[in-house]
Structure formats: structure tokens, C-alpha cells
Automatic annotation (TrEMBL):
GO cellular component entries: cytoplasm
Residue span(s) of domain N-end rule aminoacyl transferase C-terminal: 66-160
Organism (species): Pitta sordida (Hooded pitta)
Name of the gene this protein is made from: Ate1
The protein's name: ATE1 transferase
Cited InterPro entries: N-end_Aminoacyl_Trfase (IPR030700), N-end_Aminoacyl_Trfase_C (IPR007472)
Record keywords, A-Z: Transferase
Length: 160
């Protein structure tokens, strides 16, 4: 048995070289031990989208996100349709006091508010609303399609 300590942040060359193999071990562990389904969202199905109506990805996914938010709120929190319309969604999860900033020594995506979208079969099944700041990531809210609650997307998002 050989054990290596491999720097993950910032990713070392060893980490990058063994990432896929490590991921496959993790995925198998999750399926065998925690009974995760094999179609649980993967890294390639998660998009980090800046919360900005100027951003093309945000604009193109806005209606789908707002509709998913309403479905979640009505199913999980028993809100009425008037409690979770587009205006309420925008006020609650899109309007942010944070200004987008791209510092030269900061993350590639920059700092600010983001929607971390989880896609499966071409549709959004969960959205984690997060703020990326210089010294932390703040989880603001998570909503998901109740039809996919068996995937434990809240736990997955928190661990991710």
C-alpha cells in the first residue's frame, strides 16, 4: 500500500494527473456505500453562472431557473404561486449587493454572486445560489426539482 499526499488547492500536477482515477474511486464508493444512482450529476454537468442579466448564460437559463424555483417553493415550502413568481425570484435570488470583480490573483470566475446550475439531460435540476468572496464561499440558498430529491442534491451541493 502506497499513500501519497497530493496538493489539491491549488491543484498540483500530481492532482491533475490522478483526478479522473480518484473521481472514479469516489463515484464507485458513493454508489456502493451510499447507494447513489450512477446518473447523479457530475462535474461536467455543473455550471457556474454569474448572476447578471448581462451574462448570456444567465439570461438564457433565467426562465428555467425561475420555473424550477417556483416548483421547489410550492412543493417543499408550500408557498402559493403568487409567493414565488419571477419578481419574487429576482428579488430573493438574483438581486445582490455584491459587485462583480475580477482580481488578477483571484479565481478565474471572479468574485461576486453566482448561480451554480446542476444540469441533467439538458435541463436544470438544481441551483445553488452562492457568493464567491476573497476568503470564503457563502451558500445563500439551494433549490432543486423535487422529482429528483432521491439524488440528495442539497448534500451533494454542500460537499461540492
Amino acid at each position: 500500500l502506497k499513500v501519497r499526499v497530493v496538493r489539491s488547492s491549488p491543484p498540483s500536477s500530481q492532482f491533475k494527473a490522478t483526478f479522473q482515477e480518484s473521481y472514479q474511486v469516489y463515484k464507485r464508493y458513493q454508489m456502493v456505500v451510499h447507494k447513489d444512482p450512477p446518473d447523479k450529476p457530475t462535474i461536467s454537468q455543473v455550471r457556474l453562472v454569474p448572476v447578471s442579466f448581462e451574462d448570456p448564460q444567465f439570461k438564457s437559463s433565467f426562465n428555467q431557473s425561475a420555473t424550477l424555483f417556483a416548483k421547489y417553493q410550492m412543493s417543499v415550502h408550500k408557498d402559493t404561486p403568487s409567493d414565488c413568481g419571477e419578481n419574487e425570484f429576482t428579488r430573493f435570488l438574483c438581486d445582490s449587493p455584491l459587485e462583480a470583480e475580477h482580481a488578477p490573483d483571484g479565481p478565474e470566475c471572479g468574485y461576486g454572486s453566482f448561480h451554480q446550475q446542476y444540469w441533467l439531460d439538458g435541463k436544470i435540476i438544481a441551483v445553488g445560489v452562492i457568493d464567491i468572496l476573497p476568503y470564503c464561499v457563502s451558500s445563500v440558498y439551494l433549490y432543486y426539482d423535487p422529482d429528483f430529491s432521491f439524488l440528495s442534491l442539497g448534500v451533494y451541493s454542500a460537499l461540492r
